[in-house]
Amino acid sequence: MGDEHEEAFAERLAELGAASLTALHALEVTFRRMGPMGFEALRQGMTPVRDRLAGALPPLEQARGPAGLDGLREQLVGGAGRALAALEAAMAPQPERILAAMHDHARAQAALYPLRAVFPPLGRFFAEPVRWPDLASLDPEPREGVRVGIHNAPGNDADGRGGFSFYVPEHWDGEARWPLVVALHGGGGHGEDFLWSWLREARSRGFFLLAPTSRGSTWSLMAPELDSRALAKMIDFVAERWPVDRARILATGLSDGATFTLLAGLAEDAPYTALAPLSGVLHPLSHANGNLSRAAGRRIYLVHGAMDWMFPIDSAREAHRALAEAGAEIVFREIEDLSHAYAREENAAILRWFEPALALPDPTEASS
């Protein structure tokens, strides 16, 4: 009887894990494709995913597991609950609920990340495909005195502003000097959430990842020095504790975070060596504060969607023209099917451009 009980518990555990993983993937695809014209089709596509997760959650919530597995059950149930909340918010008819969906999606990942070794499919979600054959190498035995994993500054919880989250891949050896990616969230966002937009790549390729949170509800676009100084202090803070390669610091961001990437990244004495704004604009202040005169020779990777409804593509084309004329070493990626959303697939190309040593083999080539 005991064996049957344990087998039933294991089946419920596996089903909820699989349903949660499907939800994480579906939400990532939805956020990438989100746009006014295709919203209803996306909602319909998420319905079976939501129904599966909603059906798999109660049986494990109510199950009595074998001794010692209550913590595992609670962790999985908590992550699955946040994934379900994200699906329901993403499917809501009110477009403004999408920010809540993104927040819950991030919180689901935070809850499920510690289970990556227990559920190998989750381990694959948090790694790039070329790393899948050897996931164990990304999680070696802990080494005494080596601080790895996710670190949150005090007060950088969901309600806190002005802090940061910092990720050190678990396979860092405690000595290697690595590049730093500084990832800036969009308006109304939070660094603790936006961290997950880059964690998979940081874990797979080996670089430090800093995800700051703006002091206000968005970045100080009209007084850029306020958040710029805060960002510089954050970089100094982590560089004093981990060996950040200051010759390789990439600033990137989405929407308002992209706009601020250019504002802060072109400022005098900016600590960044390359900039990669996605779905933002070249702020008018850049014409008045000397930023354009400092753009000469600066490396910029500009990404924008041809279907962007918030910042129409013409604004990005104009930004490209102005920065190129100012002498920036600029790459412009106009993505035909992208609306005002984060093009997660561009992370790999951005990293290859930023630092060739961070490039990974093409998985299709590696398997041939």
Could you please describe the fold and organization of this structure?
By secondary structure, the chain is of the alpha/beta class. The protein has 13 helices and 8 strands. An 8-stranded mixed beta sheet has the order 1-2-4-3-5-6-7-8, with helices on both faces. The radius of gyration is 21 Å and the shape is globular. The chain starts with a helix and ends with a helix.
Q: What is shown here, in short?
A:
By secondary structure, the protein is α/β, with parallel strands linked by helices. The protein contains 13 helices and eight strands.
Descriptive labels:
368 residues, disordered C terminus, 8 strands, alpha/beta, Rossmann fold
Structural class: alpha/beta
Return residue spans where pLDDT drops below 50 for at least 5 consecutive residues: 364-368
The rounded Rg comes to 21 Å
**Average pLDDT reading:** 93
Please tally the helical runs, counting DSSP H or I stretches of 4 or more residues: 13
What is the terminal-to-terminal distance? 48 Å
In N-to-C order, the SSE pattern is HHHHHEEEHHEHEHEHEHEHH
Biggest beta sheet summary = 8 strands, mixed
| Widest sheet: strand ordering | 1-2-4-3-5-6-7-8
Strand segment tally: 8
Shape: globular
| The CATH fourth-level homologous superfamily of the largest domain | Alpha/Beta hydrolase fold, catalytic domain
Helix content: 40-55%
